């Protein structure tokens, strides 16, 4: 009786202890290893790389709200770009440039700090919304 790998399905020799393709341990349920089979399943579920292989779902990439806020602190619009909102980030960069130019007229002294703070708050909130959406998928 040949053994089949429970992870990749590769056919292995009867006396094989490990799969020749993926090196996964092979178990014989007829040899008092039924409890070990349950333990193996639990171990596989604890390994994130195994989860991806078992359910064929791509990994989820969460955004760190602190990083997006810090990026916007140092350069307006960079936090939005980090969040994957490229168009919004470019718009913030353009608006910040216009606002900085308006400093020479005097209005920029009010608009520039407000826009800077708005950009940081928006980057943080956007990252949190993106994470909530990913978590609910």
Condensed summary:
The protein is mainly alpha-helical and 137 residues long. The protein is built from 6 helices and 2 strands; from the N terminus they run ββαααααα.
Question: How would you characterize the overall build of this protein?
Answer:
The protein folds into two domains: 3-55, no CATH class; 65-135, no CATH class. It has a two-stranded antiparallel sheet with strand order 1-2. Residues 31-35 have low confidence and may be disordered. It is an all-alpha fold and 137 residues long. Helix 3 runs antiparallel to helix 6 (108-135) and helix 5 runs antiparallel to helix 6 (108-135). The chain has six helices and two strands, in the order E-E-H-H-H-H-H-H. The chain is rod-shaped and about 85 Å long.
What's the main sheet like?
Answer: 2 strands, antiparallel
* Average pLDDT figure: 80
- Number of structural domains: 2
Low-confidence runs: 31-35
Can you tell me the overall shape? rod-shaped
What is the ordering of alpha helices and beta strands? EEHHHHHH
Percentage of β-strand residues: under 5%
Number of helices: 6
Measured as a percent range, the helix fraction is 55-70%
CA radius of gyration is: 26 Å
* Total count of strands: 2
């Amino acid at each position: 009786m040949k053994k089949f790998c429970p992870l990749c399905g590769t056919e292995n020799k009867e006396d094989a202890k490990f799969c020749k393709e993926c090196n996964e341990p092979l178990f014989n349920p007829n040899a008092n290893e039924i409890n070990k089979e349950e333990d193996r399943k639990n171990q596989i579920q604890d390994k994130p790389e195994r989860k991806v292989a078992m359910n064929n779902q791509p990994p989820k990439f969460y955004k760190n709200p602190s990083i997006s806020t810090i990026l916007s602190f140092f350069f307006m619009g960079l936090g939005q770009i980090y969040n994957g909102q490229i168009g919004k980030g470019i718009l913030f960069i353009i608006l910040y440039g216009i606002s900085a130019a308006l400093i020479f007229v005097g209005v920029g002294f009010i608009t520039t700090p407000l826009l800077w703070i708005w950009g940081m708050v928006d980057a943080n909130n956007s990252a949190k919304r993106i994470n909530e959406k990913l978590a609910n998928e």
